[in-house]
Amino acid sequence: MLNQDFRRELEARRAAVCAQLGDGVLVLPSAPVALRNNDVDHEFRQSSDFFYLTGFEEPDCVLVLSGRPEGYVLFVRRRDPEREIWDGRRAGLEGAVEIFGADRAFGIDELDQKLVDLLENVTRVHYRIGERKDFDARFLDVLDRVRARGRTGSDWPTEIVDPRVILHELRLLKSPFEIERMREAAEITVEAHRAAMAACRPGMYEYEIEALLLHRFRRAGSQRVAYPSIVGSGPNATILHYRENDRRMQDGELLLIDAGAEFAYYAADVTRTFPVGGKFTPAQRDLYRIVLDAQLAAIARCRVGETLDAVHEAAARVIAGGLLELGFLSGTVDEVIEQKGLKPFFMHRTSHWLGMDVHDVGRYHRERQPRRLEPGMVITVEPGIYVAEGDENVPPEFRGIGIRIEDDVVITAGEPEVITEGAPKTIEAVEEACRG
Ligand code: GLY
Ligand code: MN
Ligand code: MN
């Protein structure tokens, strides 16, 4: 059963979509099942757009939504006691109506026929062409058949519109219900990062820490990771999307953990970097302070009316200043920024949208201008410094150090709300957390 709050939230989302659909109709297939081998599939996760409007987690279904009477229609898998023994329970047609609140439900086997009926006299369909090529063929075939009916006087769809325009703008601005779930994902994640700091010892393997994170996530009710955990020690911390997590960690190195839980389809995205042996070396400390100051300066810019470019620039200027002071760069802060001199040390952006997807949906520009932050947006702030192992232009003690600090920030009408601030990040707090 969907709880009442969630059901109301879903109704409000569908109403908001319908208000923008006008007399158009949205056709949205669920995520596909991906075969891994033989009769084993990859883990199924519902597409975020589909879940956002239905709360329905089964594969092989289609939502047809419009503002017309009985406009919430679900095509779902029929109940099948024999298949359910193998693949698990299905809501079936009855469940789609009773539990998920659909006005009408049909078997997915009826889609080709019924969709022709549902699109008759509809002139605009909101459907994303190109995402599901297998489904495109089916959809285009349906359109042909609707068009053929035009001979008897009915209208057919002459406009196909990308539904992301409506859906992703709505998803970009989080409701209080969504922010609650994001707080939950953040809290679970913070607790796991703390546990990792307390447990890490020289001689352990990166995968032991990865396993600990996953254990903490799952036992707290998180369904899955929001993205593959990055657990990179020593020079591995300089690889931005490091995945192997198989190195033995040594005293004197840093461990960079970029890991986040998904909770109720909402992602957390947190990075902390700490000494494997519990104590920063002087060189690590120097770089860590710069990244931390950069992150705090960037967070201070996370306010209504600012842009992600401004947030990034705030971080970049602090990093430029710090690296100039250490003698890694020469010139002035302005020159470093202008000439893209930070690129060898800080080669990624500072922020991205965060929500149901870790790199969440929504446009970053409007009318070719960087868009302004609004209350209800959630972003990450994640500056870093990465010194290549073979960089002979810097003193040896700095080589192969990678540091990133990443928090999740809710834009409010006032102060930025850092929902992951429970994860230690000052040098003192980190060293203390490492002592357990
Ligand atoms: N974990 C992916 C990112 O930080 O963007
Ligand atoms: Mn991250
Ligand atoms: Mn991130």
Describe this structure in words.
This protein is of the alpha+beta class and 436 residues long. It contains 13 helices and 21 strands. The strands form seven sheets. A six-stranded mixed beta sheet has the order 6-5-4-1-7-8, sandwiched between helices. Strand 12 and strand 13 form a beta hairpin. Helix 5 packs across helix 6, helix 8 runs antiparallel to helix 9 and helix 8 packs across helix 13. The chain binds glycine and manganese (II) ion (2 copies). The site of one manganese (II) ion has 5 residues, from loops. One manganese (II) ion (MN) binds next to loops.
> How much of the residues is beta strand, in percent?
15-25%
Chain-averaged pLDDT: 97
Coarse morphology? elongated
Number of E-type strands: 21
Largest sheet: 6 strands, mixed
User: What is the count of helical runs?
Assistant: 13
Radius of gyration, whole Å = 25 Å
Strand order of the largest sheet: 6-5-4-1-7-8
Report the helical percentage: 25-40%
Helix/sheet category: alpha+beta
Low-pLDDT ranges? none
> Oligomeric state of the chains?
single chain
Straight-line distance between termini: 41 Å
Bound molecules: glycine, manganese (II) ion
